[in-house]
Amino acid sequence: MNQPAFDLEFDANAGAGASDTAEHTYSVGELADAVNGALRSRFGDGVWIRGEIQGYSERGPHAYFRLVESNDTGKAVLDVSLFANTRARLRPLLQRHRLQLGEGMTVRVFGSLDFYAPSGRLSLKMSGIDPRYTLGEMALQRDEVIRRLVASGLYDANRRTTLALLPLRIGLITSVGSAAWHDFTNELEQSGHGFEIRVIDVRVQGDLAAEMVTAAISTLSTHDDLDAIVVVRGGGSRTELAVFDAESIALAIAASSVPVLTGLGHEIDRSIADEVAHSSFKTPTACAGALIEGVQTFSFRAEAAWASLSALAGRQIDQCSAGLLETARRIEQRTVAAIERADQRLTDRSHRVTLSCSRALDQTALGLNNASERVGRRALQFAAQELATLGQIEARVRLLDPVHTLARGWSLTRDSEGRVIRHAAELAVGSAITTTFAVGQAHSVVASITPAPNAPEGANDE
To answer: Which pairs with CB-CB distance under 8 Å and at least 24 residues apart come from 268-272?
Structure first.
């Protein structure tokens, strides 16, 4: 198609007839019609276009979004209109493949191109969709994420963690108040077991769902007082459940040191979160049931172990009782025999002691008689000697009696406190003294003192 050349020089003398020979000029409306005609001529009844949905919105019964393709040269964008009658016609097809149009979904759609003159924009009036393309793209993306997880060794990392034998402390990640939340918590409450639940409320679909679920798993995995982390949501379309194909969620599960259990409410498909989780279940109720079964199994095993221990202890007690009775019987027999032998030995020894005592008494009596005779003879001699010695002692004591000394003219002087005065230096002028004679006493006061010349050292000491 040739582009007409424009002459920018204006000839003021040119007549009105000059425009008759010029190229045809379109009005804006005519150009819009020409473009739409060219589009219908080029693309016939419609065209297939693939891209990623962005800016999805619903206005009443109609839906509008943009198909976007990003490449090395930039981004290409095409507006798409999905009117109510087409939505109603396509709804069974989407439901059959469990798809729901939404943000970020990769699609292949069919429709007719339309250049809308009032806005001057080209758009696509959607009339069909290829579900298999979307499912294939989702599968390819899932396969790529799983491949990276396997290559990094994280695919089965959480399955290598050990689920507690008694999983009562649960970290729950779900949309609080949803049917999934009610199903899960009601199942645990009706079990009668003492489950402890720590809940983090998150979105389980939409733009922020993957980010919130990832953050919740990472937060709960730091709590070493939890036995398991549980992620549940109700059923939904493949595109809604595609949130749990997010690589960030898979990495958070793989990095968790706490076992992660999933119950994402879909009977057929398995998300990547299911693939990398320690255990996955089809519904929140089934997930709760598995935890309850684990607790019941532990309880049954504990009861059985207790019964076995009780029976074993009973048998051992019976065996010990029988052994104890047998030991007691043997001890009784040996004790009786030992007592009889001891009694016999005691009788023999008593007899020997009696005979020995009789002989000893006889010998002692004989020795006593002999000693008595010797003592009788020596007593008189001893008494005479002692009387003589006693007389000598009495004579010496009589000589030392102060009475005899006083009788010879000596006297005894005491101070006012009754102490004997041996030296004049022991007195002081004015001291009261008492002098004792052989007969009587005299009381006087010291008028003067004449110490003895050359008195020996210590003469004042008593």
So the answer is: 268/98, 269/98, 269/238, 269/241, 271/241, 271/242, 271/244, 271/245, 272/142, 272/145, 272/146, 272/149, 272/244, 272/245, 272/246, 272/247
